[in-house]
Amino acid sequence: MTHDEKLDAAEELMTQIARALVDHPDEVSVEAVEGDEGDDTTVLEMRVAPDDVGKVIGKQGRTVRSLRTILAAVGQGHHLRYELDVVEDEDEEDDLQDVDDTIVGGSESTTAG
Hints:
By secondary structure, the chain is of the alpha+beta class. Helices cover 42% and strands 21% of the residues. It has one domain: GMP Synthetase, Chain A, domain 3 (2-Layer Sandwich), CATH 3.30.300. It contains four helices and four strands.
């Protein structure tokens, strides 16, 4: 399995889990973004409908923490590191608000490796 295939599999897994959790599954998207140069971590950004952000984050961040745990296990099997960020589009603007920092109180990432 190539690096791109592994990344596609991780994106698809997070997409399918999120779609099972939310009211608007058609609005779920997960895509890889470039991390910091020299960093071996791949950041996956998850976007959901504004009404569904709370469902993906969960009470006290438990749901997103569980998603990160699953992603870490996948990364361990792939010998890669993944980080999951939940972002929300602000009324069709290009600006992104990192929902994790606002709701959970910090960027808590789970990495494997």
